[in-house]
Write a structure and sequence with these properties.
The protein has eight helices and 70 strands. By secondary structure, it is an alpha+beta fold.
């Protein structure tokens, strides 16, 4: 028991690396990983088809759709294992299932085809293959029979014998067939067996070299088949081991071999006797089960797809050697890189946060990094170097370095560090950002959180930058400023990256030119948060920012933004900029590595799919290896070596943008539906209506190496000034909320490497509104409103005319009848008083009452007379009343009419005219009654907005009864007019003021 436990514990460490084995850029495909895959195929339109344990699915890069959802005619495909898939050049899909042979046409018709042996009790079809001439399909049934079919689905030619355990059929150019299963068999087109071979414990797969000679490949070696079943081992690429199932994929450059642990790309040696050799090998992700039946398939873009028919899971990657190589850390653990440099003895020095300094032997560029135990700080701790400046600049060949101390002198042979002082600075950590050499002056500059410093070799002290000839004791010009990066231009200037933007410092004068959002044009650009700089040989300064991407300062001093997330940058935060061959710029970001070509604007994005350990890079942790020109970029999980010359060439097949489905969403879920499009379908005409307010367009970019990172954009012609709007990596466009009208929707796409799709989708779009929101409805509503207003005004005018006529007739009747009668009564009373001697008091009262009644009747007649609805009538009436009152009382009543217009023909509403006059009479009566006897009374009338009437009395005011009926009556009439009435004492007297609004 103890021995067994010791053996188990001894084996555990050995198994751990296998579990963390690097997957060489293999990426799991989420949608396909949920299916139990058996086969993959690619249709001419670029979409993938997957045969699974329960049928077939179409895969557009994001979602897998069952074939039955795409079927438009014919029987449904039963939910049985689909063992074989074949997409033919005419766009048809052939399916070999446990339930027979099926043919799916490009138009969506599914047919069940007759089998080579209809009477057989086993309907299983394990293999399909396209003949070398592309005109026939070979179909295997029940592991025993084999027959050719036309592309139309008709059997042709004789039924040939098959092979037990048949798993693949490989047609040869001469028309013969190579069968693989329980052994390997070579058949002539007539069915004659030309040879058979088997290897105990090995699964053999055929491959033809450029001369047409056959080879049989296993997971360990390559064999020449000979007569009589003989096998001659010619090449071995692995030591003997347990036999594993193997897949061989023929390609133009050579066969690709799949085994349980790796994919090996083989090539043929040149010459008349070509032999297979391993070009490169890529480790596979670990498989979860002991039993393994792997499948390898390649699409037209050069992607490999690997899956196991016994487990769920699907991985894919570019079919190319790894050009991004991650350097393993001590013990295989991740490490966050801060700086890297090549030492004089050829070793690579890497500074990390967790493990201190690491080194790598000069002759092993891919060897794991090891700790440099001899390198310690004066405190004895392992150092974390933020920057290292190669070149002897101290005693004994010491280099300058910077860390948490912050400035150090470093011996690259012994690893000994010495702390260097900073003039005028007591803090132990001033936040060092960068250390750079000005090749023109030989001066070393350091950017920190406390300003700009330089190294004084005479005193071995770092000093703050000061303007030559400055006043003694004056603070340094950049004291307290954060300097993220420094780039000398060898002409007496320094370019500085700061949180506020970019500055160009003239060392001789201290003058600074500022570039940023607050700078004047042409130095204005969104470069706040500038983090890293690269000064190109042509004089352009490239600026990487934290939140705005990449900008460039041209040689003439103009600045502009050149690369942002809207142009495809995966992250707006750029951590480092490195130059590469061909004028390329390599950008380390927080979401991947970017290769940018300034001349064309093309960018390629590389992530963990291409071999990165992590997509996040550290700031300023990038350098060019002087030994071989490779790029060293450090991230949060390790150091990467990028070989620009090994970057794969984009595939010759242009990507194509497809509309795979259209979802019309309605107010009710039952009315919502998704329509899947097939290759022959024309692009639909889109329509948004009240009952269908939303449309989702499902997109797919085929022939793309990394479909999940493809970028999409759209515009609606006739809306938002035809501006292109980015969708990012979301392959779905939702249309909603557009104003009614007719538009054209255009959609474009590009791969993650910046290759634009060969086509642009264009679809007409009609947007209709609710009946009440349509232009015709609004026009009819406007006409109806105008008609109603016209009829209402006409009716009102008629009513006013009738009222005016009634008022005129009433005034005439009162004047003619009542007025005449009262006039006669008054005259008779006066005559009676003249003839009577000694008139009595009753006779005097009768005369006065008849006169008052006549005056009242005249007021009533004036108030109802429609011809008196003018300002002139009101003024005349006021003047008449003032004249009569003045004669009767002997008081001075003064009317101020200077603020009245020259012409008094302005119309006044009858209520305004009547109530204003009555308020005037009441106020005048009160003024006569309560004012100082003999004092004048002033009346002011102003016409405008508002109409204003004032009655003012002078002299001491007599006692006034505030509970009188007259004041309440005036306020009541003012309320009816919605007017402002004030009555009360003023300096020197009493005043009533009425303001009538329009």
């Amino acid at each position: 028991m103890w021995c067994l436990l010791l053996v188990i514990f001894a084996l555990l460490p050995a198994q751990a690396p296998a579990q963390t084995m690097p997957a060489a850029g293999w990426q799991a495909e989420p949608a396909l990983s949920r299916l139990m895959l058996r086969r993959l195929a690619q249709a001419p339109d670029g979409l993938l088809w997957a045969g699974t344990d329960d049928g077939a699915y179409r895969f557009d890069g994001t979602q897998a759709v069952p074939l039955n959802a795409l079927r438009r005619a014919g029987p449904a495909l039963p939910p049985v294992p689909c063992n074989a898939l074949l997409a033919t050049p005419d766009g048809s899909l052939w399916l070999g299932t446990d339930n027979g042979l099926y043919h799916f046409s490009p138009a969506g018709t599914l047919r069940r085809l007759p089998l080579p042996a209809p009477a057989s009790g086993n309907q299983k079809v394990p293999a399909l293959a396209l003949a070398a001439d592309g005109r026939r399909v070979w179909v295997s049934q029940d592991n025993t029979t084999l027959q050719a079919y036309t592309l139309a689905g008709q059997p042709t030619g004789p039924v040939l014998p098959s092979l037990a355990g048949l798993s693949s059929v490989v047609p040869a150019p001469d028309g013969s067939l190579w069968l693989s299963g329980d052994g390997t068999r070579h058949l002539a087109a007539t069915g004659q067996v030309l040879g058979a071979w088997a290897h105990p414990g090995r699964v053999l797969r055929p491959a033809l070299d450029p001369t047409g000679r056959p080879w049989l490949l296993s997971d360990r070696a390559a064999y020449r088949p000979g007569p009589g079943g003989q096998l001659t081992e010619a090449v071995r690429w692995e030591q003997p081991g347990t036999g594993q199932p193997v897949e061989v994929l023929p390609t133009a450059s050579g066969p690709t071999l799949l085994s349980r642990e790796a994919v090996r790309q083989l090539s043929w040696t040149p010459g008349p006797d070509p032999r297979p050799r391993v070009r490169f090998a890529l480790a596979l992700p670990p498989w979860p089960t002991a039993n393994w039946s792997g499948r390898l398939w390649a699409d037209r873009t050069g992607r490999w797809w690997v899956f196991d028919t016994g487990t769920r899971g699907c991985w894919q990657r570019e079919a190319a050697p790894v050009f991004i190589r991650a350097l393993a850390g001590p013990g295989g653990q991740p490490y966050s890189v801060r700086a890297s440099v090549r030492l004089p003895d050829g070793r690579l020095l890497v500074s990390s946060y967790e493990t201190g300094l690491l080194t790598q032997a000069p002759d092993s560029p891919l060897a794991p990094l090891r700790r440099w135990a001899a390198a310690t700080l004066p405190t004895g701790n392992a150092p974390v170097l933020l920057a290292v400046l190669p070149g002897a600049r101290g005693p004994g060949g010491d280099w300058l370095a910077a860390g948490a101390f912050p400035f150090l002198r470093f011996n690259p042979r012994t690893g000994r560090f010495l702390k260097l002082p900073v003039a005028g600075q007591l803090a132990t950590d001033i936040g060092l950002r960068t250390l750079v050499l000005d090749s023109a002056s030989g001066r070393v500059w350091a950017g920190t959180q406390q300003g700009l410093y330089y190294y004084d070799p005479a005193t071995q002290v770092y000093r703050p930058y000061e303007v030559p000839g400055h006043a003694p004791g004056a603070p340094p010009p950049l004291a307290g400023r954060v300097i993220e990066d420094v780039r000398p231009d060898a002409r007496g200037h320094l370019w500085l990256a700061t949180p506020e933007g970019v500055e160009r410092l003239t060392l001789a004068t201290g003058a600074r030119g500022v570039y940023g959002p607050a700078a004047p044009a042409p130095r204005r650009a969104a470069v706040e948060g500038a983090r890293c700089l690269y000064l190109a040989p042509d004089g352009r300064l490239w600026v990487g920012t934290r939140t705005h991407g990449l900008a460039v300062v041209a040689a003439d001093g103009r600045i502009r933004e050149v690369l942002t997330p809207s142009q495809g940058l995966p992250s707006p935060s750029i951590a480092s900029i490195l130059p590469g061959p061909g004028g390329m710029l390599w950008l380390g970001t927080y979401q991947g590595l970017v290769r940018y070509q300034p001349a064309t604007g093309q960018l390629s994005i590389y992530t963990t799919a291409q071999g990165l350990v992590s997509d996040e890079f550290n700031a300023a942790a990038a350098a060019v290896d002087p030994r071989d020109g490779s790029l060293l970029l450090g991230g949060v999980a390790g150091l990467h070596r990028i070989v620009p010359g090994e970057v794969p060439v984009p595939p010759a097949v242009r990507p194509r943008l497809l509309l795979t489905a259209l979802t019309a969403l309605s107010a009710s879920a039952e009315a919502s539906r998704t329509r899947y499009l097939l290759a022959p379908d024309a692009l639909p005409a889109l329509r948004l209506a009240p009952e269908q307010p939303l449309i989702d367009l499902h997109l797919a970019l085929t022939n793309s190496l990394d479909a999940s990172r493809a970028r999409y954009a759209y515009r609606v012609r006739g809306w938002l000034a035809d501006r292109w709007l980015g969708l990012g990596t979301t392959p779905r466009l939702r249309l909603q909320g557009l104003p009614p009208g007719k538009y054209t929707v255009e959609i474009r796409a590009a791969t993650s490497q910046g290759v634009a799709a060969a086509n642009v989708l264009r679809m007409p779009l009609t947007v209709t509104a609710e009946w009440w929101n349509r232009p015709l409805t609004w026009l009819l509503a406007a006409v109806a409103t105008a008609l109603v207003v016209y009829l209402w005004q006409r009716n009102r005018l008629r009513q006013v005319q009738r009222e005016n006529a009634l008022r005129a007739r009433l005034a005439a009747d009162l004047h003619d009848e009542v007025g005449s009668l009262l006039t006669r009564v008054t005259m008779q009373a006066e005559l009676l008083r003249e003839f009577e001697a000694g008139p009595t008091r009753r006779l005097d009262t009768l005369v006065e009452d008849s006169r008052a009644a006549a005056s009242t009747v005249r007021d009533i007649i004036w108030s109802v007379d429609a011809h008196a609805d003018t300002l002139a009538a009101l003024v005349d009436r006021i003047r008449d009343h003032l004249d009569a009152t003045s004669r009767a009382t002997g008081r001075d009543l003064l009317l101020d009419d200077t603020h009245l217009p020259a012409l008094l023909d302005q119309a006044l509403p009858p209520t305004v005219r009547q109530h204003t006059y009555l308020i005037f009479k009441e106020a005048l009566t009160n003024a006569l009654k309560y004012s100082q006897p003999g004092s004048p009374i002033r009346i002011g009338l102003r016409y405008g907005s508002p109409l204003e009437l004032t009655i003012s009395s002078e002299g001491p005011v007599a006692a006034i009864s505030r509970a009188g009926q007259g004041l309440r009556s005036m306020r009541h009439r003012a309320a009816l007019l919605r007017a402002d009435l004030t009555a009360g004492p003023v300096p020197g007297g009493w005043q009533v003021r009425l303001k009538v609004p329009e």
